[in-house]
């Protein structure tokens, strides 16, 4: 996409898949690597320079048939970046969590909900993103980082709705 820097991570061992994150060229951003125990197969992490600090932004895809080992890596990644100013987004395939009442069914959903709560992260997507489920999440370390969340029609042939939102931090633009 013209005017954007692309950060991506391919799905290993298969054709297609993976994650891709676009950040405007005018925003100073660079890819980061997490600790080995937090390196997820389908996640990409960047730091965005925001004045005198950085905001860590992560994009994660969690398959519905994920291995226990890979699920643990996603949890470790969240535990690592929660210590920073961060926004973590993606399709986590935890569709049975009621975010308004903080209730859920299923062990994996409960573990994820506990992780989000124990990490003091705010979940900003409260409407269904696929059928009746809230599969996509936008989590932030500070509630005021995310504003104006809108659930929009799917893009192209996707069966998931788009999520549009504004990240509200002060930043420095690249000088070119």
Automatic annotation (TrEMBL):
Recorded superkingdom: Eukaryota
A Gene Ontology term for the protein's cellular component: extracellular matrix
Family matches, as Pfam families: Exo_endo_phos_2 (PF14529)
Domain named Endonuclease/exonuclease/phosphatase: residues: 57-163
Record GO biological process: cell adhesion involved in heart morphogenesis; larval heart development
PANTHER family (alphabetical): REVERSE TRANSCRIPTASE DOMAIN-CONTAINING PROTEIN (PTHR33395:SF22), TRANSCRIPTASE, PUTATIVE-RELATED-RELATED (PTHR33395)
The protein's name in its UniProt record: Endonuclease/exonuclease/phosphatase domain-containing protein
Organism: Ridgeia piscesae (Tubeworm)
């Amino acid at each position: 996409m013209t005017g954007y820097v692309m950060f991506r991570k391919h799905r290993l061992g298969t054709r297609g898949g993976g994650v891709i994150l676009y950040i405007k060229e005018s925003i100073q951003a660079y890819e980061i690597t997490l600790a080995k125990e937090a390196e997820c197969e389908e996640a990409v992490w960047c730091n965005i320079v925001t004045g005198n600090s950085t905001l860590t932004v992560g994009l994660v895809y969690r398959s519905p048939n994920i291995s226990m080992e890979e699920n643990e890596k996603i949890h470790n990644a969240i535990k690592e970046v929660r210590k920073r100013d961060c926004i973590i987004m993606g399709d986590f395939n935890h569709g049975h969590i009621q975010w308004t009442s903080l209730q859920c069914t299923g062990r994996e959903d409960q573990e994820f909900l506990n992780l989000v709560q124990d990490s003091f992260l705010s979940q900003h997507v409260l409407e269904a993103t696929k059928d009746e489920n809230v599969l996509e999440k936008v989590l932030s370390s500070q509630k005021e980082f995310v504003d104006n969340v809108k659930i929009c029609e799917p893009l192209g042939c996707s069966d998931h709705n788009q999520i549009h939102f504004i990240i509200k931090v002060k930043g420095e633009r690249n000088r070119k």
